[in-house]
Amino acid sequence: MPKQYFIPTTLTYSPDVKGWPSFYSYLADYMVGMNGFFYTWAGGNLYRHNTNVLRNNYYGVQYNSTITSVFNEAAMTIKLFKTMSYESDDEWECTSLFTDLSAGSMLSTYFVQKEGEWFTFLRENDGSVNFKARSSAGIGTILSATGPIGAIVVTFNLDDLGSILSVGDIAYQVVNSAPPAVSGAPTLIGPITNIVRESTTNIITGVVTLPSITINSSGVVPLVGNFCLGLKNSVAESHGARGYYLEFTLENDNVDTVELFSVGGSMMKSFP
Prior knowledge:
It contains no helices and 24 strands.
């Protein structure tokens, strides 16, 4: 969801523009520009700014460099934001990234240098859950659930589980309600550790082995009759960020001089 701005901030008024054009993250008692230098007072002490090599240190507190901006081209069109890139002489981390429909973040290790720019594909947050995305796939109605909590075998009265489900996907269950009844929110069971995809029949005994999955349960027991579904890793299955706009915050913790020249990205019209 969008960031809430409740952090105390210093605003400065400019008589020339008759507005408040500048924001400072530090809190000063008084500030003035004089003889080519910028001075502030804090706690009864006088400080002259931009005079030492240590950057982003105000009144003994070290801060990171941050910049927040928005991609908002074609404001009335829902877009799919695919990539982000920036030109800088140092690495930055995207600590916040959200649209009106989704959210994510980009670790500095996600960015790789390509032709002088730092480039990455947009990813969702690790652990984010979206059952409306294509990374969510229904499995079937639970026929039986047996075994210990750490290795519960869940069987389904199906011929084949298909190829979408993978070991490592996270299993959920939801009450299997018939319309017009509305099912509740899916409940986490745990990661899938083994899959038997197809039903088989022993030609000698005639015993049928139904498709099944083995789940390392978090403590929740799968219930017979509930509908089971699998959710893939949100980072690995990321396809970008969808929305009217994309707001991002880049952050850098270097105490030396750092220059950020430009930030860009690629986007396309979103087709449902």
